Fold this protein.
Amino acid sequence: MIKYINQTVEYLRERDIGQAEIGIILGTGLGQLVDHIKIEKQISYNHIPYFPTATVEFHKGKLIYGELEGKKVIVMQGRFHVYEGYSLQDVTYPVR
C-alpha cells in the first residue's frame, strides 16, 4: 500500500499539486463550493495512479487544487462507495 501511495504522491507533485492546508470531500449539495475556489490545477481521477474512478453519474471525478478564502485546498469532486463494488481500502485510499 505504501508503494502505491508514494507513486500517487509523486504523480501529483510532478503536476504541481502542492501542500494543502485544508482537504475537502464534496458530498451531496456541496458541488457549488467549487465555484468559489481559485482553481490552479484539476486532474481527473482516472489519470491518477491507483485512484478509484467515480461511477455515480453526477460525481465529477476530479481532484482540484487551488485557493479558497486565502487557504490552499485540495478538493475531491466525486466520491467512491462500497455499494459501487469498491473495498473499504479503495474507498479510503484518496485520503491517505
Remarks:
- The two ends are 10 Å apart (CA to CA).
- The first helix runs from residue 2 to 14.
- The beta strands are 22-25, 38-44, 62-68, 71-77.
